[in-house]
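Hey, weird one. I pasted the Histidine ammonia-lyase sequence into the form twice and got a warning about non-standard characters only the second time. First submission, copied straight from the form history:
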Amino acid sequence: MELTGSGLTCARVHTIAYGGAEVTLGSLDAAWLAYEVAQDLLGPVYGQTTGVGANKSVEVAEGGHDLLRSHATGAGPLVGPERTRAMLAVRLNQLLAGGSGVDPRLLPVLAEAVNGGAVPPVRTYGAIGTGDLTALSVTALCLLGEIPWDGPRFPLASSDALPFISSGAATLADAALACHRLTALLDAAVVVAARSFRAVNASAEPLALVVQEARRQPGQAIVAARLRDMLAAEPVRIQDPYGFRAFAQVHGTAVAAASQASRTVEIDLDSATENPLIADDLAWHNGNFHAAAVAHALDGLRTAVATAAQLSTARLAAMMDPALTGRLPFLAAEPGGNGALILEYVAQDALAELRHLAGPVSVGTAVISRGTEDHASFATQAARLALRCVEPLEVVFACEAVAADLALGEPGPDRPLDHELDTARENLRTSY
């Protein structure tokens, strides 16, 4: 996969992290231009001729390596190799976009690290959505040979230190992985819901085109169109429970939120979020490192995902009702049997986890560095929580899928949705 500084998507980040795709480099022209400008800069440059944070007005000489050593202090469990691989790829792509001023000879070395599966010992805690300074400082010291790792080395100059670590690459990597996986689950859930509709003979009337055109919510229209193509049964009830009647509205909101979150993350994957930004022969001191947009998008995604899961549990409950399925209570094989009752416990447990993970992080803040840094996005936490949503969301949809299979009987080749469901299941497997 060629990295060029543009066109990196959440799906491509996932392929690099989990699919083993090797990366190649596009043009280094933008990186070389910024580097050459950086070598000729006059006047104070934050983090290079000055200290950082509250020390921004303190002149320093060759303080970059000290900056790395002081900031390479994370805590908690080590981050998994796939996530660190994604982080390296994201930072590499950002550097290709130019604007950092880092030595371009570093970029092929980073590509070698990605392709060789090198894993810097990055720990979980150490960022608040204003740059992944600890994770990237650890990586820089690995490149310098001061921290052991199984990857290549590169003699980062003192002047390369801040330009290399001035990024939220680890946060963006987690966000990209979460967006890709949650999107895949939401996509597969439409096929699962179609089976649930059939299991209770739910009406397809709420999915009608005329209904969708009366309310032009794009996510709703997309979901309704997909589900409409899978269903042809005539309605047997005037109105079904909300789990069916409002499926397009609720699930469509989650689909739209996933699309919006992906777009927001992908903008930053291809952006030079450097501070200072080296451009137009100057060093521009700025706040592009602040990830408020990502934090808010992921907060919205987690909330929408939890709501979609809640409606899945409602459909699951409906399939336990003989008045809707025409089967025995709980889809039992014989009268008095418990059947699939336990699925409701499992799904509700997973749903409770999703509700917990849905709490917004973007309403928080932090004041650090003697008041100089007086706000934080907590996008790091938003991304981490979004990744944690994947497992319980899969559990909820899986419980619904099992119940639908039981309600419809054992899947057979004559069932028109079997191929769709098998495809969805395969997509889920390959998405990991």
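That's the output from the first submission. The warning seems to come from a hidden character in my clipboard, not from the data itself. Strands lie at 2-3, 24-25, 75-78, 123-125, 277-279, 282-284.
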